[in-house]
Amino acid sequence: MAIKDESPRESVANSVRTGAELARAAQLDRDLAEQLIERARREGVNLVGEGGLLSGLVKLVLEGALEAELTEHLGYEKGDKAGAGSGNSRNGTSKKRVLTDVGPVDIEVPRDRAGSFVPQVVPKHSRRIQGFDAAILSLYAKGLTTGEIQAHLAEIYDVEVSRDLISRATDKVAGELDAWRNRPLDRTYAVIMIDAIVIKIRDGAVANRPVYVAIGINLQGERDVLGMWVGSGGEGAKAWMTWLAELKNRGVQDVLIACCDGLKGLPDSIQNIWPLADVQLCVVHMVRHSLKYASTKHWSLIAKELRYVYTAPTADAAEARFADFEDTWGTKYPALIATWRRSWEHFVMFLRFPPEIRKIVYTTNMIESLNARFRQATRRRGHFPDEQSALKVLYLVIRDKQPNRPHITGQTRDWKAAINTLAGYYGDRITDY
């Protein structure tokens, strides 16, 4: 829909910044919007897409903003006689098509005779407005491939976008990802949790690869995604030492409690990097892992009896209950019993805490909720061409939740009670920082 009436555009562009005039400009915008809607109804104009109602409105706003920029650059209003001897003046317009969230919009970009005007709203050589890139990244974060994004934009916005353009938009996040992975971290974390999600990555051939995720709870109770690393599936102490040392080099000098799965070499590596950390194995993972040694017909009963163990009021009570469990199942499933005995030291650690701490550290469910969002974004893609592509999507999943602070995924519930209890156990390690 072409907008021929110039006076509303000039009014928006030339409105000054006093309160009364801003109010009049706002009323003008509302009146103009009502006129556009009425015209769209009368002429059967579409809402979005080329020639749509919103395209016309975006055209009006962009051209008004460009005129305001040029006025500020020249130092006088359009039509003002003061410009006659200024040494620079308006010099018509040039046509430009830009991609916006509502589709392609053809605009008239004002020029000056000296060629010194550099627009900020629609920069030179830019063919799309920032919000359009944001729409592409949001779709990418939801797991759509470049081909699916291309089809979606064509269907919804009636605009043809090349796959190359989409790739360039998503490639911009690579630098942001690197900065995020290398940002400074807090000195002390009350809890750090480490877990993994398995995704398909092509490395010669498509293979399942684990992506390890570390989330910390800082002393303000904020859940902070500290880092992500793509593994090979056979990680040992050397790999874990490298990744945990990375966190320490970025500022993490002390961890009170580290909660993790029983990944090979991980508990020992945690205590090598942070000697004072208490290592707690995730109880949910322990139960799941031990069920692999039992017949499925016994899973429900075994899980129920193990619950009595890990909900015991004390470590001694848990030991007594597990002894009863071993009497019942030890002969039939000795490997299951051995799994718990090998991990007993790191299992019972959380039982010395009161309930407000236990519910935070006995499971890595905090990461599981993030992993669920990861799975939703990665499932439909099938596989990723390389590690970097996988990490970009996972980072965008994190950022999509809270763009201004992409590493913070939420606040721990009832944190005041928890931090006061932790201060009673860890003393100066908390109160000093």
Explained architecture:
The protein is an alpha/beta fold. It folds into 2 domains: 7-127, no CATH class; 188-431, no CATH class. The chain contains 18 helices and 8 strands. The protein has helices at residues 7-14, 19-43, 53-74, 130-141, 146-157, 163-171, 173-181, 237-249, 266-273, 283-291, 299-310, 315-329, 334-347, 355-361, 365-379, 387-401, 415-426, 428-431; strands spanning 90-100, 103-112, 188-203, 205-218, 222-230, 254-260, 278-281, 408-411. The strands form 2 sheets. Strands 7-6-3-4-5-8 form a 6-stranded mixed sheet. A two-stranded antiparallel sheet has the order 1-2. The model is unreliable at 1-17 (pLDDT under 50).
Write the layout of secondary structure elements.
Elements: H1 7-14, H2 19-43, H3 53-74, E1 90-100, E2 103-112, H4 130-141, H5 146-157, H6 163-171, H7 173-181, E3 188-203, E4 205-218, E5 222-230, H8 237-249, E6 254-260, H9 266-273, E7 278-281, H10 283-291, H11 299-310, H12 315-329, H13 334-347, H14 355-361, H15 365-379, H16 387-401, E8 408-411, H17 415-426, H18 428-431
Parallel strand pairs: 3-6, 6-7
Antiparallel strand pairs: 1-2, 3-4, 4-5, 5-8
Helix pairs in contact: 1-3, 4-16, 8-9, 10-13, 11-12, 15-16
